[in-house]
Write a structure and sequence with these properties.
- This protein is of the alpha/beta class and 236 residues long.
- The protein contains nine helices and six strands.
- The protein is globular, with a radius of gyration of 18 Å.
- α1 packs across α2 and α3 crosses α5.
- It has two domains: 171 residues, Rossmann fold (3-Layer(aba) Sandwich); 46 residues, no CATH class.
Length: 236
């Protein structure tokens, strides 16, 4: 069987003008991850990344570390397949409808983004509405399309590479949760709930062959915990 490592990007710049950029903590996480992969003897037959800056920068830290230490490394295959869903568009589409239904929601909205708990309460409601499909709107990304794109892309990778390969994909929580959903047969709601538990610069492992995908490790962050710095353990 081949092994597929799914890496969630390092911490992004939540609350800043450019969220997509890695925070200083995110850069540290990416460097630690790169060193961890090297020290555990991981040589990848292929590296994939989404198009987002936070995903690309996390991948680049691995490439730079391997290159500096004269380890075999390939350039990443970059594709929108590995991007996160467009949560900003989903938010902007759903919030006006939710305010019409429940004006009291404005109280929590006033606390965003300073209050992380208020944000998560609203964001949870937004995403659960979105994945239901009952509030789909023309021109707005659909959850079912997001899942289909991921599963198709994953199938293409599995077909392209034979047995005994090691592949790594630098991506986001949404992608990782859908692959986990596929492997475990989870509901959409459980898949989304899992996505909120996936930590920055974590590693989720799968084995795959022609029969399908098997989850062998989820949300691994031992490489960060060994630094003995709680600030490295982040979710957003």
């Amino acid at each position: 069987m081949s092994v597929l490592y799914l890496v969630r990007h390092g911490q992004a710049s939540f609350g800043k003008d450019n969220y997509d950029r890695l925070s200083p903590t995110g850069v540290r996480q990416a460097k630690i991850l790169a060193k961890y992969f090297a020290r555990t003897g991981k040589i990848f037959d292929a590296i994939y990344s989404g198009q987002m800056e936070r995903q690309l920068k996390t991948a680049q830290e691995l490439i730079d570390f391997y290159t500096k230490n004269q380890l075999a490394v390939t350039q990443p295959v970059i594709s929108s397949v590995f991007n996160e869903y467009d949560s900003l568009t989903v938010w902007k589409t759903q919030i006006p409808l939710m305010l019409e239904e429940d004006p009291s929601l404005s109280q929590d909205l006033e606390r965003v983004p300073e209050d992380g708990k208020a944000f998560q309460r609203i964001f949870s409601k937004v995403i659960f509405r979105w994945i239901s499909g009952a509030y789909d709107r023309p021109g707005v990304p659909r959850w079912r399309d997001f899942k289909h794109c991921i599963r198709k892309g994953l199938e293409e990778i599995m077909i392209q590479y034979g047995s005994k390969k090691q592949l790594v994909i630098f991506t986001s929580g949404g992608f990782i949760s859908v692959v986990t959903q596929t492997a475990l047969g989870l509901s959409d709601k459980k898949a989304v709930e899992i996505s909120w538990q996936i930590m920055n610069a974590s590693v989720t492992r799968f084995k795959y062959n022609s029969q399908g995908v098997v989850l062998t490790g989820f949300n691994e962050v031992a490489h960060l915990e060994m630094e003995n710095d709680i600030e490295l353990l982040t979710y957003r």
